[in-house]
What we know:
By secondary structure, the chain is α+β, with helices and mostly antiparallel strands. The chain has helices at residues 2-30, 32-38, 44-56, 59-80, 83-89, 95-126, 134-142, 229-233, 247-255, 262-292, 298-326, 334-351, and strands spanning 148-151, 155-158, 161-163, 166-173, 185-191, 195-197, 202-211, 219-228. A hairpin with a 4-residue loop joins strand 6 and strand 7 (202-211). Helix 11 (298-326) runs antiparallel to helix 12 (334-351). The model is unreliable at 132-136 (pLDDT under 50).
Amino acid sequence: MWKLQRYYLKEVLVSASITLLVLFAVILVSLVYRGIQRSQGGDAIDALKITLFWALDSFPHLLPIAFLLATVMTFTRAAQDRELTAIRAAGVSPLVPMSAALLVGVGLAAVGSVAMHYVLPEVHFRKYRVIAGVMRNVFMSMQLGTDRIVLPGGYVMTYREHDEGGFRDCTIYCKKPIAGFTSPILFVDTVQDPTFDEDDAEVVIALEGIRDPIGTSGTRGRMAIAIPYPAIAGRESRDERDDDLRSDQLLSEVLRGVHPQPDGARYTLFRRSCFALLPLLLAPIGYCIAEFARERGRVFALVFALVPLSLFYLGDVLGARLLLSTDSPWCGWLPAALLALVGTPLCWRQLRR
Length: 353
């Protein structure tokens, strides 16, 4: 029995690996333009990282699709070559060849579980983060080659000279007075070169020796202006969401009662688990589709394989809609429930035939 299982196990693994690599390459190529666009001001490495992060975010969709296509193609070939008929004629249960797909499904479910709960949330967060070469973009945006610098937030600065300590004898024009001053025009002895705070994704500009030309507040020693990077790069800011947090972080926030939407967090956990289990659910369905399409050909089998995938994603969309109307986190399991509801009769009929 093990030789028979190993025979189909090898074929399913090889076919799934090739399919996954091809699909991932297609996604990677299609996202090159987005990576280049988002890395303006950086270098080729920054564009490559951003493109790779966006492509990796499609992993929970590519993995089950590649596995289902590989399973269907492998066992459709075996059915057309009458291998599955010979196995049944020898008195061997169809569960024996199908167990090869189940073993691969179990392995992919374990890998997918780790990826969905721990790895991909970090990838999803990183793909929106500031690129490593942000300072080059900052200097390009600020036009530091002139004596008139336009800063985000409505600031315009002129200076007399620039050295290693920063900009000297500066005048800053603001849209409205800064807190503590009465004039929108400020005289500043020194404006230090911008520094980048990676934790908060902000460009920090330190001012020293600030004077209000028409006010009575005197001279202030030091003040820092923090400007978010999206404001400099010309992109919209984005708040942290549940998709950016690992499952253990989400669960800890829910248990400590600090999450603003605990039902939504539980729904995210259930949805991730549902996607992780998808390869295991598709293994018997793919095998039964292959047997069912023996006389109809591989093209029919591949088209028929779109039905369970469509049902799963339909359940995903309906689950999100039901969450908004019912506030029940159990809607996250709707895709798996819908797939099992439709796939169970097919598998029962085909395996009992």
